[in-house]
Each structure stands twice: as structure tokens, then as C-alpha cells.
Amino acid sequence: AGCEKEPSSYMWIYILLGNMLRGIGETPIAPLGISYLDDFAKEEDVPVYVACLHTIAMFGPIFGFLLGSLCAKLYVDIGFVDLGSIAITPQDSRWVGAWWLGFLIAGITNFLAAIPFLFLPKSLKKPEEANNDKTSFALLENKGTTRKMLPPAKPKPRKYFYTSLKKVLSNRMYFTFLCCSLLQFSSFIGFLTYKPKYMEQQYGQSTSKSNFLIGLTSLPPISIGIFLGGLIMKKCKLSIIGATKFAFTMSFLAYVIAQLHFFVGCENHVVAGMTVSYE
Q: Smallest Cα–Cα separation from 223: which of 68, 54, 64?
């Protein structure tokens, strides 16, 4: 009965709200950033720029795992207790690392990284429009004159959400790409979620070393692959169909090579009541 206590801390509410705000801030970066590049860059340079964007985005998880490895070595109450009085080590199952320290460092870094966005102009001139300013201005003037002569157009009917959603999902190319992305992210998230625990349980590694190994071995090759993919698309000048075939071939090869994971591992631990009897 002495172990049964009501939770007295409501700090989880701040963590929940912080993650919600972080998600709101991160959401526009991928779709709006890619659209920004697609609108104001040359067509042949867009694949490389998008590849650079995704490659840089992969550095975040890499540094995150390395930072997590460092924070896991520090005791959770660092700065509030005498570390000399702690008898357990990071290899002990009772050890809890300073998980909260990563949120502070990442928050300050995100704030500093957001400052350069304040200096971006509201709009840029497209490369093909830069040399045709006078022509474009004349066309706009003629368009304005014609619009004054015509009667006012009837207001268009308001489109509802389900109509737009139906139109988007009826696009076969987009729907296929969406299903492919869902499968890839589902497998990738499961990989990153359970691989640290697998390394800890099966190979006897500490949480700190597991995070360090994942950040060092898993994510850098992905970053290199993303950049090389954009470079190949630019050099070969692949069309939409060519890029689709290229993506399918690479994804299929990655799937085949990933089957080698089934041949790596150790025997399960002996657990009383599960793998052997209590006797």
C-alpha cells in the first residue's frame, strides 16, 4: 500500500503542449519549403535543392541521437542532487538519464534557427519572369482594362472539405505515392522505436551507447542516399515517369536488402514463466 500514490506532478501537461506547439511549427516547413523551392528555382535545379532540404533535415535526428546518448549518461536530477552520492551507473536498469535536458537544448536551437526566416522577402521573382517585367506589366494592365469592361463575374460556389479530399484522393499517382509513403514511414518509425531497446536487451548495451550507435550508423547513409538521389535526377534529367520508375527500383532493392535483418540476432533470454517453467 505504501507504493500506491496518486500522481502529484502535472508537468506532463507542459510537455504535451510543448510537443503540440512544436508540431504546429514544424508542419509548414516541408510542404511550404518544397513549394517555395519549386516556384522560385530553375526546373533542373529543383531535385538537388529538395534533396539538400531533406538531407539537412536528416541531420536533426543524427544530432538528436548523439545528444540523447550524451544526456542518457547524465543523471536525471543533475544540478539538484550530489552526484557523488549516487551509487548506480548508466548500465544499471534503475538509471534514468537527463531526458529533459534535450528539450531545452533543442528548443534553444530551434529558436535560433528560426531567426533567418524573418529576413526572407515576401515574394521573389521567378527566373523566367526576371527578364519579362515590362511584358508582364503590360499584360497585367491590359487584363485590368478588360476586366473593367466586363460585367462582374458570379461568385464561385464554396468548396467543402470532403469535395477537395475526394478530388485529391482520386488522383491515382498521388494516392499510390501516399500509400507508399505510409508503408515506408511505418517501417522506419518502428525501426527507430524498437531498435534501441533491442540492442539493450539482446546485446547488453546501455541506453547511451544504443542511441550513439543508431545515430552514427543508421541515419548518415540515409542522408547520403537522399542527396545522391537528387543529384542523379538532375544529371539524368528524369521525367515524372522516369523518376517514378527510379524510385520504385531503389525502394524494391532496399526492401530486398532489408531482408538480411532476419539473419542477424541472438538467442532469446531465458525468462521464467515465458520461455521456461518456474521449476
A: 54
C-alpha distance from residue 73 to each of 5, 6, 85, 101, 237 (Å): 29, 29, 16, 11, 48
**Residues pairing with 276 in the sheet:** 272
pTM, full prediction:
0.54
- C-beta contacts of 100-107 below 8 A and 24+ residues apart: 100/76, 101/71, 101/74, 102/64, 102/67, 102/68, 102/71, 103/15, 103/18, 105/67, 106/64, 106/67, 107/18
Per-residue pLDDT tens digits of the chain, which is 279 residues long? 566 666 677 888 888 898 888 888 877 777 777 888 878 778 778 888 888 887 887 777 778 878 888 888 888 888 777 777 777 877 777 888 888 888 888 889 888 988 988 887 777 676 555 444 444 444 445 555 545 555 555 556 566 677 877 888 888 878 888 888 888 778 777 777 788 888 887 787 877 788 788 777 877 888 888 888 888 888 888 888 888 888 888 888 988 888 887 887 777 778 888 888 888
Cα 7 to Cα 1, 11, 12, 56, 96: the distances in Å are: 15, 10, 11, 40, 18
